């Protein structure tokens, strides 16, 4: 009952209320992004959602457009500014995803939506993370966030998919607030301290 009907109703209610309540914060962040990083303010990227359906994920922009002498964009770690790192470490860059939730492309709680490029590298068990809508936060995020290795992340994702309850979702929401405030388990994306899943899986295959 909760998984099929109530969870979606709560997603709509909470995302709508959050957008209204946080609108001043969203506006301020948008202005700062425009001033410090330029246009566009919103970064859009294809991500796989429920059943692998591709949707446009919305985030606040956190990187510059710096290019090398040949006009090619520099690596992420060279384009991620101090301001961008603050946005990512505080998760403020994720606020536009509330629109994705309202549209039904995401949920408040679920496996984080990852890159489309990763799709060919999932094993059969890992593919089940797409049996549900991806989340703004999830079980993996309260158990280490992006400091976890890939096997650990996916293990938590599948554990969540197999055990969706109101109580579990409530616990994840409260623990997420705690983790964000404490900045616990944070490895800022784009700093070169984490390895992309496709590269990780390729290395794993080569070792075998």
The CA-CA distance between the termini, in Å, is 43 Å
Shape: globular
Largest sheet: 2 strands, antiparallel
Question: What is the radius of gyration?
Answer: 17 Å
Helix and strand succession?
HHEEHHHEEHHH
Oligomer: single chain
Determine the structural class based on helices, strands and strand pairing. Answer: mainly alpha
Number of domains: 1
List keywords for this structure.
single chain; 208 residues; mainly alpha; two-stranded antiparallel ribbon; two-stranded parallel ribbon; 8 helices; 4 strands
Structure at a glance:
The chain is 45% helix and 10% strand. It has eight helices and four strands, in the order H-H-E-E-H-H-H-E-E-H-H-H.
